[in-house]
Amino acid sequence: MATVHILTQYVWPDAAPTGLYAEQLAARLEQDGRDVRLVGGRGGYRELQRKRPVARITHLNHYRGSRGNLRQSFTEYASVTRAFCDYIGRFVRHDDVVVVTSAPPNTVTLAQAIRRRGARSIYWLQDYYPELVRGLYEYPVPLRAVFRRFWDHHLGRWDRIVKIGSNLGGPTRNAVVIRNWPTMSFDRPTAPEPRTALYSGNLGYGHDIELLVHACGKLRTAGYRVTMRSDGRGAWQLPAWLQPMPLENDPAKLRDDLLRHEVHLVAANPKITQAIFPSKIWNTFAARRKLVCTGFAGPMIEELEISKLAPFDRHLEQWTDLIATAQNSGQPNRVERIEPALA
After folding, report:
1. How far is CA 104 from the centre of its chain?
2. Of the four listed, 42, 60, 81, 310, which is most buried by Cβ atoms within 10 Å?
3. Domain membership of residue 251 as a residue range
């Protein structure tokens, strides 16, 4: 039986958002009877207590930097990517399928290593880095164009790119949109506490903190109690009245926290509309809570409106269908033109 290898920087027991989605895809494939390996590093992003998701999990050795230190982070990115390349050379076989997430970003260069093994390659584009880096430094337009050409050249080498939103940049020739889904179930949503609002998650390079603080201020003036649970560089920039609390590391408590609040806040950056699409909106939709978005502009607003109508209970099924098609393909390196939308 051909193996599906899913590679991402952080995997269980860590709970980075990209890693959570990777493990939930791996669990679904394992339930369907496929041979699956979930492969990641040994670094840490965020703790979340939960059971082992699949039988076969491989943690690779690599340099581990300090989160928040850019130099050390980039060194870790390079080290993780080298570890992935070594894994591909040692364990990937002809007709296998290799799914690689955009964490770390250097993995965009791995398509050729997968191709040399005669396997199918799928790149899971959660973040489009030529635009995301603008949240760190608004670099000159000519340099931005060079970076986009470099990135798009490497994206074009993959058999498939799966974008989590239609607003993400990158080529369309080999791309398809399969949106994310709720990472937890809300079988019986309860009534929230009135006049409560919650931001829960990372505040990083893709978020405009000033716009988020302004929205929180308006809610506060309207009588809402605003709870801020966040980490990341943006959390350091919050005013005293919005000082963040620790993120919940117990899934049951996180679910209760989401259900307890009437309004969920989601932040973006209007300057970088092709970089990301916040995955936390899917838990908000599933919990049937009100959504307040800040920093959404242009294609992000269009994607938000599509997402409100998207059948998120089918998105994992779309993934399994895509992988089944890749496994059944007699020509692993052939790319057919497809439209960049499934939902």
Report:
1. 11
2. 81
3. 193-309
